[in-house]
Design brief:
Elements: E1 2-4, E2 11-13, H1 29-38, H2 45-53, H3 55-59
Antiparallel strand pairs: 1-2
């Protein structure tokens, strides 16, 4: 299924199954809560990677 990332507007493929790229990453609970509060749908792999890499700054609102 084609989706558009709500962060960068890039179109990406979401398989909505255990084969999706997102099943290979671990999202800490604090990051999951942040994502739920800000987005209504999936992010692309690039944006998710960026958020996880910078999670301390993002969660502190910097």
């Amino acid at each position: 299924m084609q989706k558009t990332c709500p962060e960068c507007n890039k179109t990406f493929e979401c398989s909505q199954s255990e084969n999706c790229w997102c099943t290979r990453i671990t999202i800490p609970e604090d990051v999951a809560n942040y994502l739920r509060s800000k987005y209504f749908d999936c992010l692309c792999e690039g944006c998710m990677t960026k958020i996880l890499k910078n999670k301390e700054k993002i969660l502190q609102g910097k």
